[in-house]
Amino acid sequence: MCASEFLPFDGDIKISVPPEVYRLHSHVVARRSGTLNRAIEHARENAHPCTDPVLIEMDLVVVPAADRRYGRLEIEAVAGVPQRAQPADLLSPKLRKIWGNLIKSLSGQTPFLKPHNPDLPGLAIRPDPDEEPDDILHNSKALITLAEELEATQTVFSALEDAFVDLGHDLGEAVAEDPIQWLCISMTLRESWIFKDAACHVVGKWHNLEPEVKMSIPEAARRVCQSYSDELVQRCKAVEDFFMTVEFEPLENPGSSDLLGLSPHMWVALTRFREWVYVNISLANGFRGEDGGFNFYRYMYNEDDEYDEDWVPYLMEDDCPQEDVDEIHGYLHRLREFCEEEVEPLLESNVSHSTGRYLTCTEIKDEDIPWDDDE
């Protein structure tokens, strides 16, 4: 994004983002930024007595600052009278993009949050070593920071909402990459969709998050995630209890070799199936595991070829003659079919994008969005 993308007009406020220059109207800027409004008023109050304050032009420039990550605005000239002793340094492409997005927002346009042509090396922005990446997350965070510093949150946050709509699926991918930071952003912007999407990801990862990571989440959002995580654990526990107690219906006409209405093949299948479940749970492959049971539950669900080939519980050599193996395998698959209906809700996804190996079945309710709790 550059100054040439703006519609040409002769504004009385010139903002330099070296080497680029933007012009805006003071009455628009003053209405949308408390900080700039005070700067404009100060310039008019201190102008030459013979100068019409309404016609005063003011030049602002973005300069690097040790106490501001993205630099700060300083008055360069008022009514043509220089206010700075030396010209401002050129800014990095990353900083120029960040400030260009802010100025776009103040002028009623939509900021550009995506990376600049990442597939074209000559046009891509390569941040300096101490700068943040050029991506949707960090460009959004930078714009929020500048909006707060310039007291322009209402205008900039509204522009961000428009930018998020334009991003479409790209926003879902960004949230999936770092849901915790997006959860924090959603609390700042009061963005319900982002909150629900990010919270669903976070709940699926909750069991693996370090305490300090959990504490980095705003308290109100943290309570929501903890509550839904507790609920998810109970759902998983109920499903695993079902796995461990699943059984066949007794045969209507059992034979002489059948026990308690089940054939020997059924008993072998049931024994090995339950043993397989017990072993997986004891090895922390269930909801207490690193993936929250994701892979274990996928193995139990037989509509995914990736998991369907090697899920079958093992058979011991002395379990049965070789000619009986296929029949026992058939009963094993029947047991898994009994479990499908129980496990299927855990494998549903309520996020817009996910490639992670964790559960994203949580559906955050509207009444649990905690805007009021974080005031």
From TrEMBL:
Name of this chain's protein: Uncharacterized protein
Native species: Aspergillus uvarum CBS 121591
